[in-house]
Write a structure and sequence with these properties.
Strand order of the largest sheet: 3-2-1-4-5-6
Helix content: 40-55%
Structural class: alpha/beta
Number of strands: 6
Radius of gyration: 18 Å
CATH superfamily of the largest domain: HAD superfamily/HAD-like
Distance between the termini: 8 Å
CATH topology of the largest domain: Rossmann fold
Strand content: 5-15%
């Protein structure tokens, strides 16, 4: 095995079909979020995120109706806003717990994650979705509860996914040399940022994924090919 001690993986387009996020999760949140805000606006955890929406939008006095409109507009443009992601995670929790859907994970990803964990590799998630949403997807996944496999989760609170300093912060928290950490993603700009921070990188070309390749990254179509490329279990 190469000297890789930890693997950090993206979700959308990497462990999980993009269609699940865009055709299941996002529409569910768009339908459910307005009623959720109306019912839960006074709860401290929700109120905190609503205030964060007002601050990020630059509208400190925005009404509840205006905040809902801002959130729906952010969802339509797939904005990576931390308070939006937090509120979406709260709504998705209800959907998962009610059995409205399960989190999609590719079978090859689930199998290799289990193998890598069993071999002693530390596994982490880094996604623009909130940590809570990440835990829900893997906890209520089509492959069962995968959360025991992961040592930690990172979201936009650590920084933007296309910013090298975010990956520097991740490796600092892992207390590992960057070249002992492998980052998996389907987005070349994220891989470029991780490579700038010294990480090893691999581009996942799932169906419908990126087609233009930057040099310097490994390239795989699934997690089995990642394992072969980097001499992993």
């Amino acid at each position: 095995m190469r000297d890789i001690a930890a693997i950090v993986t993206d979700i959308e387009g990497t462990t999980t079909d993009i269609a699940f996020v865009h055709d299941v999760l996002f529409p569910y949140a768009a339908r459910a979020l307005p009623a959720f805000i109306d019912a839960q606006a006074q709860a401290s955890s929700v109120a905190e995120q609503l205030e964060a929406v007002r601050a990020e939008a630059g509208e400190p006095n925005a009404s509840s109706d205006r905040v809902r409109d801002i959130l729906l507009a952010w969802m339509a443009e797939d904005r990576k806003a931390t308070p939006l992601k937090a509120l979406q995670g709260m709504v998705w929790r209800r959907g998962y717990e009610q059995g409205d859907f399960t989190g999609h994970v590719y079978p090859d990803a689930a199998a290799r994650l289990r193998a890598w964990s069993a071999a002693g590799l530390d596994l982490y998630v880094y996604s623009s979705g909130s940590e809570a949403a990440q835990r829900l997807l893997f906890g209520y996944s089509s492959a069962g509860d995968l959360t025991p496999l992961f040592s930690g989760y990172f979201d936009t609170r650590i920084g933007a996914k296309r910013d090298a300093t975010s990956y520097e912060a991740i490796t600092a928290q892992l207390a590992l040399d960057p070249d002992r950490v492998l980052f998996l993603s389907d987005v070349e700009a994220e891989l470029a940022a991780a490579a700038t921070a010294g990480m090893r990188t691999c581009l996942l070309l799932r169906e419908g994924g990126a087609k233009t390749l930057e040099t310097g990254h490994g390239v795989a179509h699934n997690f089995d090919e990642v394992a072969q490329l980097f001499d992993l279990p």
